[in-house]
Structures are given as structure tokens and as C-alpha cells.
Amino acid sequence: MKTPLHSNRNSRCIVQCALATTTAIFLGACSTTTAVKGGTERHGQVQFSGAKEQIVGEIAIRHDKEHFRAEITKGPGVPLLTISAKFGTDSKSKENKERQMISSHVSGPLAHGGLTYTPKDFAKKGASADKLSDPRYAWAALPEVFMWGEGDATGEPVRVTLPNLAIHARARDGHVGYFDYSRHQNPSPVDAPLDRKTLKKLPTLEKVVCKLD
Hints:
The protein has helices at 5-31, 136-140, 142-154, 196-199, and strands at 40-50, 54-63, 67-74, 78-88, 99-107, 115-117, 158-159, 165-172, 175-184, 204-212. By secondary structure, it is an alpha+beta fold. The chain is globular and about 45 Å long. The chain starts with a helix and ends with a strand.
């Protein structure tokens, strides 16, 4: 029994429509920053330089005091990376009540399987810096460097936890408008931090530059 031609056309149409709908939903999910409800939204450009990768893309950031989400894309809605983070105070510290990053998660096509960073990973005295060689830690640091710059601009300090970062930010109209940071190869234990001037003399692992509108 032969299948009518119009039935094949209808089948093809259904498949094509389903694929188009799925693609639209996927791209929409990748290009939105709705994970942080309310808060402030910023847009700009970001550049990453590492030994094996050079990335230039658009960045959309949505944040409040406790949550951060950034989505990095290339061209019209092509997702590259999603970076999300939570901020708070260290409940176990009596001395330090500054806000800091509690956790950071990097995902997306260029995350190579993804990475989650929590400061307690390196909190033990004498912890080795070997595991920090993973270049994805440079992306994991982006939320706290941004929030550090924002806190410096608004007078609400944010503590940077990831070791071996040389950071810099500039404010505009009461908010961070530019920031850059570089990760450096430091053979010292992670609980023995170096100042920015000393770090800059060590080999650079990665550098990130971000300009915001």
C-alpha cells in the first residue's frame, strides 16, 4: 500500500517544526539570565587569553548581592559559557564578615565538562596549588572579581577567595565599568598569598578582560 504524498509532506513539516521549536527553546534558554530574579543586568564584551584558547565574546550579567549569573555568547545567540555563583558571609569566621563567593559553577560548550569551585576546596592549611592549573578556574573567578569591583565602587567590600589572582577594576557612575584579572603560576601553598606586584612577576596562566556598558 502506497503512502499518499501529502502524508509525507505533513510528516516532514511536523519534524521540521519540532526541530525549529526545540532549537528556539534551546537558544532561548542559553541566552537568558532569568536565573537571578530582579537584580541588575549589565552587558558588555569579554576577552579570555590562555595557553590553548583565545576567546572573545559578548557577556550578559545579572546579579544581586547574593546571586550572580553571566552568559557569554558569540554572534547572534551562540552560547559559549554560563557562569553562576552564590555570595554570602563565612558563618564560621568571627573576624571576617565581608561578603565572599560561596560557590561558582562554570558550564557550557567551552567549559569542557564543567567545573564547580568552592573556597573550602583550598581552605586547608598548606593546600597544594597543583589543582589550580585547570584554566577553567579563570572563568570560575569572574563572578567574585566582578563583585569585588562592584563592591569597591559602592562601598560594600567583597573578599576575593581564589588564590593567585592579580585583579584590577575601574568604576563608572557608581558601578564597575571595567575589570581585568590574571591568574599566575605560584609554587607557594595557596594559604600564603602574594601581593599583586609580586604576582605580576610570575608566569601568567590566563587573563580575562571585561568591558561593560
